[in-house]
Amino acid sequence: MRSPASRKLIASLLGAVTALTGSADTQPAQDHADQGGGGGASTAAVAPSPEPAQDRTAPVERAPGFVRQAAAVGDDERRAVLDYWTPRRMAGATPLIPGLDDLAGGVLPDAPEPQASGDAGAARPWTGGGRVAATTGKVFLTLDGRDFTCSAAVVSADNRDTVLTAGHCLKDGTGPWVENWSFVPGYDDGESPDGRYTARQMFVAPEWSQQADDSYDFGMAVLNPSDGEHVQDRVGAQPIAFGAEPDDPTYAFGYPATGRFEGRRLRYCTGDTVGDDGGTTAEGMACAMTEGSSGGPWLNDFDPETGTGTVVSVISFKYADDSRTQYGPHLGGAAETLFERAQSF
């Protein structure tokens, strides 16, 4: 079920821009999964095929349980995406909050930071290193000609190339797919210590693509190798669990980039979770992180000494009347179907 638009505040600027300004290419009741996008991919629509042996370079595949968009599938497309993200563009890919404030009278409130360092919800810099610092990264993407950021995490997969993020970091609900999708694991203050990876395939659930249902705001990107090396071989991965409930406490990680946050370093929150009473199946936790953290992982059984845990959700959205609580979708059977398809590429 989609949460009420009058209350909901997407944790990414992408959803906020669309909700406030609309999109000339978006019709509320229509699935725009065939609009191309994805950074260098052909925009010509092709007839979807249910056959497993279909052409994996085809721009769009719609099937029960998933919608796929081809991205930078060739060497020229991959190089074009990497060339697009110059240091200047990466530095400038931050939410356009001044414009939104002028338009909406400050509809994107900055959550007050808890006063005591031990208070639940404090978005602290992560200084512990370990696997979470290597496998969580910053995402750079283009939507409707504007450059934005999200977060994502490498998860253990057969293809060794799969990352988990929020659905709205791949496709703007019923609107267009994003372009120029690039993942920087371990991003730290402008540095890319383990390279930059472009997406070759992107996957979202039909419920997100056709209805923008926030209970399904999760997605997978399958990456191209960087210098011939799979991302999982270079930085490791966190296991992902389906059908699991978040722990108390749960740890959430991401790169918030609005308000007092600049998106330069990995931050985290930890705390207990509570079910959403706004009409979704998501869970909520107190967290001061803002836009830019969307797509960052929620981890169960987290060990601060090693930075290891199990991914059970992603940072998805906040409500406009409750900036202190972030929500993450339940990763159930629908997410598992998406993952199985993604890791087969």
Number of domains: 1
Contiguous runs where pLDDT drops below 50 for at least 5 residues: 1-7, 10-54, 96-109
Shape: globular
Helix content: 10-25%
What's the pLDDT, averaged over the residues? 82
Q: H/E element string? A: EHEEHHHEHEEEEEHEHEEEEEEEEH
* CATH architecture assignment name: Beta Barrel
Name the structural class.
alpha+beta
Query: Taking Cα atoms only, what radius of gyration do you get, to the nearest Å?
Result: 18 Å
In the CATH hierarchy, the third-tier topology is known as Thrombin, subunit H
Strand content: 25-35%
Structure description:
With 345 residues, this protein is of the alpha+beta class. It has one domain (1-345): Thrombin, subunit H, CATH 2.40.10.120. It is 18% helix and 28% strand. The chain contains eight helices and 18 strands. It has helices at 13-21, 75-84, 87-92, 97-104, 130-135, 206-211, 231-235, 333-343, and strands spanning 8-10, 60-63, 66-70, 124-125, 136-143, 146-154, 162-165, 179-185, 197-204, 219-223, 250-254, 267-271, 273-275, 283-286, 297-303, 308-314, 317-319, 322-328. It has a six-stranded antiparallel barrel with strand order 5-6-7-10-9-8. The protein has a five-stranded antiparallel sheet with strand order 1-17-18-14-13. A five-stranded antiparallel sheet has the order 4-12-11-15-16. It starts with 7 loop residues before the first strand and ends with a helix. Keywords: Signal. This is V8-like Glu-specific endopeptidase. Residues 1-24 form the signal peptide.
